[in-house]
Queue: 2 jobs
Job 1
Amino acid sequence: MKAFLIDRYKKGGALRLGQSPEPQLRENDVMVEIHAASVNPLDAKIRDGEFKLILPYRLPLVLGNDVAGVVVRVGANVRQFKPGDAVYARPGKDRIGTFAEYIAIDAADVALKPANLSMEEAASIPLVALTAWQALVERAKLQKGQRVLIHAGSGGVGTIAIQLAKHLGAHVATTVSTANIDLVKSLGADVVVDYKKDDFQTVLKGYDVVLNSLGKETLEKSLAVLKPGGKLISISGPPDPDFARENGFGWLLQQVMRLLSFGIRRKSKRRGIGYSFLFMTANGAQLGKITSLIEAGAIRPVIDRAFPFEKTNEALDYVETGRVKGKVVIAVK
């Protein structure tokens, strides 16, 4: 099958379009003919080798972390899906590879595609929506009336997180550039801070939750926004000891992550704030709940651009500009 592969880790390196063996179907898997995929900053970080310590892939590697397509075969133990089903998923982190014609995915990580979305729209959803769900619903346990700051509200995670937080009944603030103010307001943001004009830490106070996807400076400034007992959740690092333990990392990696997060954990503790790092996980059941919200009109995808399959490298380059509104998708079929 055709696929875009990494032969070696290289910062900014191009993916190679070549032939890759069709993946093996395990007894709990579904084989999906890929109609669309989407591009995430995670793809560039994997290509650059930033995750090789915690995600030890065997090279050459087919890249890609989001998929929408049609089931063509199912494993012996699979009962919830059948050939012909339109589905979408974020494959498990050890079984990525959606920049290709086919992928085998554990059925537990798959959900039926929302009936009101195209394949391209559906492919834009899984990774970012699961990230938002696991941060706001699972980790923060966000409640009606609480106040949440979502950084980078015009990005992939941000556009979905704003909508999910509003559905949960929260008061939502976000940070964006001037050009994206109207977009995030249309998604439901109550307070919009233009980071080119204002410093969010001087404008916002007394928040219950901050969802951070930016760098160290923004992460530390976010502490000033939170009230005691608040929760600072970061999807951009630094990873903490809990993350290391949950993923079964050895003693050395646990100590590395303890050191990496020591500063922000200490500063958070002084203020009575809980810090945690979130690396989202594949989850078909949660994705099914997100499907219901999409079909009910509570969440809609935001797509910046669509690229044909052969332009996957250009799509990856575009995501790396940092100027994407919502998501970039790839039409595979």
Job 2
Amino acid sequence: MADNSKPTAPLAEVISLAEFIDYQQGSVVSRTLVDKQTGTVTLFAFDQGQGLSEHTAPFDAMVQLLDGEAEVTIAGNPLRLKKGDMVIMPANKPHALRAVERFKMLLTMIRA
């Protein structure tokens, strides 16, 4: 997974989230917009068939789909998300993501 770990969003400028990250064939691309002690905001672009295997996180996280279609499984419950949909993944619950078709998402994780 490609990761631009340093925050890269221009401050005090209007951006189009879906256009701020590009798809990469056969890959998952991430771009960190905000990285603070209290939380992170990260853009992701998943090519079709790509995903993140089941894992847990110690904090709640919100996923907002900006483009495409994804399956998000939370504690064994598969959910289908399309452009404009969002879901909150509760802390300490196993979750996984899979690109039904290529998709872009904004992940917001609150640590405090």
